[in-house]
Amino acid sequence: MAELTYREAVAAGIAQEMRRDPSVVFLGEDVGGAGGVFKTTAGLLEEFGPDRVVDTPISEQAILGAAMGAAMTGLRPIAEIMFADFFAVCWDFVANEIAKSRYMTDGMVGCPLVIRSGNGAGLRFGAQHSQSIENWAMAVPGVKVVAPSTPKDLIGLMAASVRDPDPVLLFEHKALYPSKGEVPEGEIVDELGKARVLREGSDATVVALALMVPRALEAADRLAAEGIHLTVIDLRSLVPLDTATILRSVAQTSRLFTVEENPRLCGWGAEICSIVSEEAFWDLDGPIVRITTPHLPLASAPNLEDLALPDADRIAATIKAALG
Amino acid sequence: MPVSGAPYGAHQIVLPEPFDESLKDAPIDLETRIEMFRKQHQIRQLEKRLYTLFLEGLVRGTSHQSMGMEATSAAFGAALRPDDYSFNTYRGHGHTVARGVPPEPIIAELLGKATGLVGGKGGSMHLTSVEHGMMGSYAIIGAHLCIANGAAWSAKLRGTDQVAVAFFGDGATNIGAFHEAVNYAANYRLGTIFVCENNLYMEYTPIAEVTPVTHPAADRAPAYGLDAAIVDGNDADAVYLAARTAIERARTGGGPSIIEAKTYRHGGHSRADPGKYRPDPEVEAWLEHDPIPMYHQRLLDLGVGEDRLTAIIQEVAAEIDRAAEAAKSAPEPPAEALWTNVWANGGSQWRN
Ligand SMILES: Cc1ncc(C[n+]2csc(CCOP(=O)(O)OP(=O)(O)O)c2C)c(N)n1
Ligand SMILES: [Mg+2]
What we know:
The structure holds 2 protein chains of 2 kinds. By secondary structure, chain A is α/β, with parallel strands linked by helices. Helix content of chain A is about 35%, strand content about 20%. Chain A starts with a strand and ends with a helix. By secondary structure, chain B is of the alpha/beta class. Chain B has one domain: Rossmann fold (3-Layer(aba) Sandwich). In chain B, about 40% of the residues lie in helices and about 10% in strands. Chain B has a 6-stranded parallel beta sheet, sandwiched between helices. Chain B starts with about 30 loop residues before the first helix and ends in a 23-residue tail after the last helix. Classes of the chains: A alpha/beta, B alpha/beta. Thiamine diphosphate sits at the interface of chains B and A.
């Protein structure tokens, strides 16, 4: 076991796959010589050289286009889109090209690639550099979407994503980069589409993702002190979605809460809500409650940003009020 | 492989060319020059103060400074008419000051205060002041070049002769939006002025490592049927002359211009970056090629008294002191501000 930061886990995950498979290549802005603007990819250029670790121009469309073309023809690219907000300038490649190629060609052309990106708020970067866009991604048929919350999951899901024959968007949470966690020695390979139950309690199920996971855990700790016991599930993967784990837990607790950083409308929790009400309605003892960032752009002022995102206080208070 | 074909990591050191002394005799009236002198000091002193506030832990989020790059903003600030439009990037403190925005709301914005230029909602990267013609700071590279075209088009349809300036960096010339914007403006002869402040670096990567031409903006101009001016971006007079020509062309229906201003940032890309990837001799040469002392000397050579220049510097310093104190003691935005101004009715409601 070694303790790694979430930041270090990015490079560790990429390096693990690049060592294993010479067809894995990595490209993005400032990722090589500079080691990434969040210093997530330090050391990769030195180890794998400029043929496999490419510093690109500021050309997001060219980055994703090149990743797609390379994936179509035998490479396993990992592309970085520095801030998830920048997906908006190259969304054609995600939504129309990469996601659709296998289906449009009736299985002839696949795109085994990973696009990893810094997602989410907490750094006071304002409306154009703080968005949680996992719900945009999950709205596109044909791409898989994962969002790890710990260093170990980051490495394992990175490996699973690289090895997956289909395109995966991997969202790293920018505010988690300094966080630390134990990482076992040796190769780590996880599985896409598996949620993880982090603690079990019989009063309600709380499903969270990425930065919302530690916050949900903190809320669960506080409520436990008050005699309210929560099951907390780290969703980890939005597509494929581990509905079985959620439904199993709801069958036990009879109450469900989602904790989402994405803005309210059409956030991922809405889909979970819809599935649980369709498939487990009679298991529920009360309404499903979504705890989300309001449907607002994000402000840069620290107090306004903090008010917008669900925090442990809001999570605990909402759950307590709803459970009555 | 770097696209330029140079061996990886072989930084081509780019040194400044000496200041063009003959610009002393350029046809620029003295009061305009004094204005550019003042604006350069306003920007430099504001940036220095913001840096101190950052070191005190008061500036949160990110910010991108323009120490060393003041001359281009100042020259355009002096050359534009108050009703002209300007659009800039996240590195926009200087462009904001140059349009006449006072320092207090700028500092307050970076401190996340209620009295900030945009109420604490935007921060360093989104300074905007429509009353000053400063139509915003844009943090997604390339967007505002296209948006500036819209402002130029609107001026044309409304029959005003306002121009629209878009400031951007060398790195921005590699995004599709740059090429779309320039082609669009050229095709419709819009009064857009594209000002590339080439400071040789994107964030940390030298522009030369990812661009196969030497002048990332100017060398692309011929592809769109445009001539480009390449100027010393650290010489306010050089920039002013190019700005005047481009503005005149835009006002009179002559279409867009591209100006590439060669410059260098004294600090790193953003406040957290010490800029260590830049070779020492390059940094040293550009620190020598500082727009501010050069301009000071030029004004002395033109017969302006040292006492007048010193007085300006002191006025600016006093203004910044006042502004910083006021910004520091201002309250943070009220919680209700979270819910305001998503819609034109001032609110954010999306359901009944
Ligand atoms: C579409 C997009 N891609 C990437 C970024 C991240 N980014 C911010 S500044 C920057 C470098 C810009 O370099 P340049 O255009 O030379 O401007 P400078 O910062 O040097 O003024 C990058 C890559 C961004 N903001 N938007
Ligand atoms: Mg630059």
